[in-house]
């Protein structure tokens, strides 16, 4: 289960109000995209949900449990970073297994989970390679594999494709939405790319200056944007 609720979540850095106050409901199994221009607070919001930053005020609930005192590990969420966060000296197998080893899982459990993730991600033939001997898309899949083996309540993606070239980005979009259809796990996906948002999301959250401008299905935003900012950003004719 991965239902996430934000109640008046606020984040200040010094005296800068980066997130003045966000209310948001994410249903279990939803693919939600946070989209907005660079610097609008997307990463900060994701890091607050992950527990990598503390809220200044407000509440984050996961499956109706208040996360105020929950460490990132306790929240049961997996962040997927850009592929350059892989360990270059480790094999694909060990990169995917790393978090499980840290968590003290048995060798047999690790092997089963890594092989299962590799199968889902088409990496079975690459487990002995090091990241340097993989394509950009394969490296990104390894980064996703690390998240899958933790069996998270939700996946949190922060602009995972921004390092890849345009053609590969289109491919990886399909792979990630395909993965969502297969796993049916809640996914929050952060991007500044409107096309990614429109093509991938069940639900889009449009952010500007740390505020939610609109929440809705891609077609709802397109046909019925709440304001000029959303219309302009989504490229709606209105
Ligand atoms: P986005 O991911 O949408 O590009 P960020 O969440 O990274 O935006 O940043 C939102 C704003 O918060 C920016 O103005 C950024 O400079 C500021 N910010 C982010 N992290 C910190 C920090 N640790 N200390 C101070 N300011 C920060
Ligand atoms: Mg960011």
UniProtKB/TrEMBL annotation:
Protein's name in the database = Glycerol-3-phosphate ABC transporter ATPase
GO molecular function annotations of the record: ABC-type maltose transporter activity; ATP binding; ATP hydrolysis activity
Q: Source organism's superkingdom?
A: Bacteria
Query: Which family is this sequence assigned to?
Result: Belongs to the ABC transporter superfamily.
Domain (ABC transporter) spans 4-234
Which keywords has UniProt assigned to this entry? ATP-binding, Nucleotide-binding, Transport
GO annotation, cellular component aspect: ATP-binding cassette (ABC) transporter complex, substrate-binding subunit-containing; maltose transport complex
Q: Which residues cross the membrane?
A: none
> Is ATP-binding found in the keyword set?
yes
